[in-house]
Amino acid sequence: MNNIFEARDITQDQTLTTQVCVIGTGCGGATVAKKLTDHGLDVIMLDQGGYYPAQRMDQRELNMAGKISAERNFASSHDGGNLLLYGNNVGGASVHYWADSYRTPVEKLEQWAQEYHITGHSMADLLPAFEELEANLHIHAATDPYFNRMNQLLRKGSETLGWRGHRVPQARKNCVKSGHCMQGCLYDAKQSQMVTHIPQALAQGARLYANAQAQQLVMEGDKVKCLSVAMIDAATNRPNGIKLTINADAYVLAAGGFSSAYFLMQQGLKKQLPQLGKHFSMNPSVMVHGIYDEEIILWRNIPAAWGIDHFWQRQYRNGQYQEGGYLLMPNQIQPAMFAATLPLYGVEHQQVMEQLPNIGGTISWIDDVEDELGEIRIKRDGSREVYYPYGPTTKAVLKDSIKKQAELQFAVGAKQLIIAGHQGITLNSMDDLTRLENLTVSAGGLMLASPHPGGGCRMGLNATDSVVNSDHQVHGFHNLYVADSSVFPTSSALDPSLTIMAFSHIAAKCVAANI
Amino acid sequence: MQWQPISRRSFLKIAAVTAVGVSATFYGHRFMSAPRNALHVTPYGNFLVLEESHAHTLHAFAEAVLPRGGKYPTPQQAQVLQRLDEELYFISQPIAKDVKLVLHVLEWMPVMYAKFGRFSRLSLEQRLNFLNGTKNTRSKTVRAVINNCRMLCFNMYYGHESSWSAIGYDGPFAKHLPEQLSEQRQLYAALTTPQQEQSQ
Question: Which CATH architecture has domain A144-169+284-450?
Fold first, then answer.
C-alpha cells in the first residue's frame, strides 16, 4: 500500500495535517483508527516500532524478539524479578500474543461501574462491539484438532479433578498449528492488528507511519496544538534527526499499558494528573514445568486451547484469603525462553533439556489484587520504572496457583515438576509441596512474566481519582484521549486484547462525536 | 507492611559498591562513560557493549552453567557472548548498563561469600558450587544478579541453531526458511567485522 511510511521513506522534516492522530497501533490504536475511518475521518497512525509483515518473519526466537518485542524482552520490573513482555512494532503485542480473545467478564464491568464510576462501558454498551469484533477477527472456541498433547492433558486433568474449564476463544483463521504465535504468524492466520484493523483502516484512507516515535505534545490551554515526532532509524534503533510535526483536531494515545502513562509523565503532566502511573496491574504469570513419560512437544499447535476458570475468583473466609484468583492454562514457550526459566545448572540442566520433547507445563494468570497494585514511575534519568510490590495476598495467590498447577500436572502423569525461578524447587509428588514454604517471590526467587499490563491512566470521575473520564478524554484536555489497557481501573483478569478493542470502539465513538 | 521502593538499578549499584568498594565505583564510571560505537577487541570476539572484563565473567558463567561435550556446542560455537552483545547494543541504554553492572557484581560476588577469588578466576567446579550455593539466598541482589545472568545466557545459547538437535528441537515450523536478518542485525555484523574481512 502506498500509505505506509517507514523511516527510510522520510528524508526530510515534514508537517502533516489530519483530523485524528493515533499514537500506537496495537489492539487499542489500530481499533480506534479503523473505527474512526468507519466514521469517515482522516487518521494518521504512528508507531515507534518497525513494520514487520509476514514476509519479514523467520520463526527464530531471538530474531523475532529483536523485531517485534519491546527491548527484545529484556525489560523487567523494578527489582529485576518480572519479565515485561510487550510489543514494539506495528500491530503491537497483538503480533506476538496467543490469540486468546475473551469478552470482559460481566463481574469486572459491574465492579468498574459501581466502584470506579465508569459509565458507558457496561456489557449492554459493549455487546455490539464484541459481536462486530468476533465476526471481524473470526473469533471462535478452539476445536479438537487444535488441542496439542498438553491441552489434552489439561482438559483431562480438569475433568478428573472436577475443575471447571472451557475451550479458549481464538482469533484465528486457517491456523497451520506452527506454534510460533509468540514469534509472529508467518501465515497471517492469527488475526492480529497487522492483518485486521490496520489494513482495514489503511483501505479506508488512513496513513501509517512506522519507526515514528511520539515525543512532545505541544499544549495550548486545554488543547493539544500539535505533536512532535522523531523518526527512528531502523538499523541503529535511534532517532535519525528527522522530525514530523502533526497537526490534528484530536490525539488518541494508545501506546499500551506499559507506555501510555509514562508518555504522559514525560509531558510533565504528573502534577496536573496525580493518579498518572498509579493503579498499575499486569496479570503476573507463574510457570510450572512438568516432565512426562510421553512425548508432549509443547512448542507446536496453538498455545491455549483449554483454560481452567474454576479458580478465577479469589475465595475468602472470615476475611482471610483461602484460594483462587487466577486462570490456569497450558504453557507454550519455544526452547530459548523455556531454558531461561529453568533454575538448574550444568549437568542437572543438561539432563532436563535433553528431555525437552517430553516436557509440558502450565501457567497461571493472576488477577491482580486491587489493593496491592503497582505503579509506573519516571526515574531521575528520565527512564521508566515499573514498580510492583507483591503484597501478601498476591504472594498467597501465586503460591496457591503453583499448588493447583502441581495437583493438576501430577493428576495427568507428570513425573517431576520444576518451578520456574532461581531457587531450583522441584517436586516429585504432592508431598513435596511443603517446599513451597521456602519459596521467595520477589527479585527472581520466582520467575514471573507479565504480558498483560493495565492501569496507569485509570478511568474515573475526575483528576483526583483518575486520569481519563468515561469518554476516554484526559481530564483537563479537550482533544486528548487514551484508548488502551492503561484506562482499566483494575486488572481485566483475562487476556485483555478483546476488552481493549471493545473499549476502543467506545473511544472512537467519543472522539468522532467531539470532532 | 512497608515495601521498599528501591529501583533495580539503585540496588545493583549499592550491591556493586558494597561488594568491591572503590573498585566498583571506578569500573562503574567506566561503564557509564564508554562511547557507544567503541569496538572492544576481546579473546572471545569484537564487541560493541561488552568490555573485556565483562566478557571474561560472562564466558566463565556460560562455561559453568551450559551443557558440555558430545553433541553440544561450546558457548563460542553458539555465539553466546556475541549475540548478547548484539542485543545489548540495540536495547535502551539504562537496561544495557544494568546488565553490565550485573556482570560486574557477579565477578566480585564470590568475595562477598568469602571465596578467595573473583568469579572468572574460580575453577569450573568452584563456579558451579558457588552458583548452586546461592539458590536459597535471602539476598535479593544475589538472586537478581544470578537469575538475570542465567536467563540471558540460556536464552542466547538455545536461541542458536547449533544447540537445537542436542535437545530434540526440530527448529522453525517452516523448514528451510532462511533467516530474515533485520536492519539491526546487518548493521551489527558490519560494525563488528574488521574492515579487511569486509573487503574480502
Answer: 2-Layer Sandwich (3.30)
